[in-house]
Design a protein that fits this description.
The radius of gyration is 17 Å and the shape is globular. The longest helix is centred in the middle third of the chain and has 17 residues. The protein has nine helices and six strands. The protein has a six-stranded parallel β-sheet, sandwiched between helices. It starts with 5 loop residues before the first strand and ends in an 11-residue tail after the last strand. 37% of the residues are buried. The chain has 217 residues and is an alpha/beta fold. It comes from Bittarella massiliensis (ex Durand et al. 2017). InterPro entries: HAD-like_sf (IPR036412), HAD_sf (IPR023214), PGP-like_dom2 (IPR023198). GO terms for molecular function: phosphatase activity. This is HAD family phosphatase.
């Protein structure tokens, strides 16, 4: 029997092997708009959501665009590659297992809901989720705030303590843990330096989702 009644998944780096997909995209996009990427840009936007970072660039350069428009235009630049990235090991069998066990699932992502729906749909995953919650819907709160996890739990009608949050980000695992969720850390190339800390903090640390499927299954 699973030690949780509902499951909440991040998307990039957790369901899909896509943490690298945005690398260099903003650089190219801003150059196409006729501006250089500001010096130390990535250090300056650390802790912000993608839309918050775009809002900063809009203010800096006086761009006649909305943050959401800028994010979606950059998504169009990588759309085909994004929808073709592989799933993390064992994702589909695990989602099938959860569905068979009657465990409701949701996605809690910083990505725009249109982007999330298209990427998940391209991989055939949408039928496994009762809800897809984007931080954009919640005043663009970053994952240092548990709002996106709490909203996902509310849509699943399950208390935080009965939900497991699956995440590749150390910050997100810390946030979810602090809000009373059980947590599973998902290994990714971009969290290798933090993996020991994630293993200590999370309830489970997984390289393959099938590690949580009982052998008898």
């Amino acid at each position: 029997m699973l030690p949780f009644r509902a499951a909440i998944f991040d998307m990039d780096g957790t369901l899909t092997q896509s943490t690298h997909i945005w690398d260099g995209v903003t650089d190219r996009y801003i150059e196409q708009l006729g501006h250089p990427l500001p010096e130390h840009y990535y250090q300056r936007i650390q802790g912000r959501t993608y839309e918050q970072a775009m809002a900063w660039l809009i203010a800096l350069y006086g761009l006649d665009k909305t943050p959401g428009q800028m994010v979606f235009e950059q998504y169009q630049m990588i759309r085909d590659r994004y929808c073709a990235v592989p799933l993390k090991p064992g994702v589909l069998p695990f989602l099938q297992y959860l569905k068979g066990e009657g465990v409701p699932c949701a996605v809690a992502t910083l990505a725009d809901s249109r982007v999330a729906a298209e990427v998940l749909g391209a991989h055939g995953l949408l039928p496994y989720f009762a809800a897809v919650v984007s931080a954009v819907e919640l005043d663009d709160k970053p994952k240092s705030d548990p709002a996106v996890f709490l909203e996902a739990a509310a849509r699943l009608q399950t208390p935080a303590g009965d939900c497991a949050v699956f995440e590749d980000s150390l910050l997100a695992v810390e946030t979810a843990k602090g809000a009373g969720f059980r947590t599973a850390a998902i290994a990714d190339d971009k969290n290798a330096a933090q993996w020991d800390r994630l293993c200590t903090l999370a309830d489970w640390a997984l390289h393959d989702y099938r590690e949580l499927i009982p052998a008898a299954e």
